[in-house]
Amino acid sequence: MFQLGPRKLVTRDQAMTGRDQRLFDVPDRHAVLGTPLEPPFPDDLEVVYVGMGCFWGAERKFWQTPGVYSTAVGYQGGYTKNPTYDEVCSGRTGHTEAVQVVFDPAQVSVNDIMRVFWENHDPTQGFRQGNDTGTQYRSSVYTTTKEQADLVALSRESFQRALRTAGFRDITTEIETAEQAGPFYFAEGYHQQYLHKVPNGYCGIGGTGVSCPIGVLGVVPTDD
Fold first, then answer.
1. Are 173 and 50 in contact (CB under 8 A)?
2. Catalytic-residue membership of 54
3. Residue range 94-126, pLDDT digits in tens
4. From the candidates 54, 89, 203, 212, which is the catalytic residue?
5. Nearest to 116 by CA among 186, 60, 72
6. Residue ranges per domain, the chain?
7. Sign of the C-alpha dihedral, residues 38, 29, 54, 100?
8. What tens digit of pLDDT does each residue of 124-146 get?
9. 39 to each of 34, 36, 102, how far by Cα in Å?
10. Considering only 84-88, 130-134, 154-158, 167-171, which range has the smallest mean pLDDT?
11. Which stretch of DSSP H or E encloses residue 195?
12. Which residues pair with 174 in a beta bridge?
């Protein structure tokens, strides 16, 4: 998308007010997985929210991850109620572009989810991701359980050490609980599973080339 946006986060007082209801419809079903985009979800599933820059490519990474039940893109971490894409891109809502990841912990662990997260963007860039600049492109993780929060913190420490060894700067990822970050507002329907609908569309995803250390994330190597 090659967006250029504000590099300073607005305060609550500066943010747009928004509205009580969203202005657009969201598809009932995931265009790839065929599962619901909106809750309620089965009780044995978990949800985590991540921001990795432009949400088109980030969402595709997760719907391609085995054990992920559903994904959706939206806006989170800001102040404006039910924002639109244009409002978020203005930098006046405080939101980041986020991906809702609904997964089955019996099939894919939080550690595996975090490996996809850390390795597929550069979490050291602040209000930027590659060619896209603006507060809406900041790296973020918003957790929904205590176990998620603990594992995310451990993975951050582990990946930070690996990044420093490779010569990268400090991680700037915003890590909060989903309650602290505020509601996840679904993006417009055309954004959902965008790169399935437009296979040659823009994808800003790109990692640092640094691998997230396996052992520290609780995955024990085998001799297979």
1. no
2. yes
3. 999 999 999 999 999 999 999 999 999 999 999
4. 54
5. 60
6. 46-217
7. positive
8. 999 999 989 999 999 999 999 99
9. 14, 7, 10
10. 130-134
11. helix 194-197
12. 140
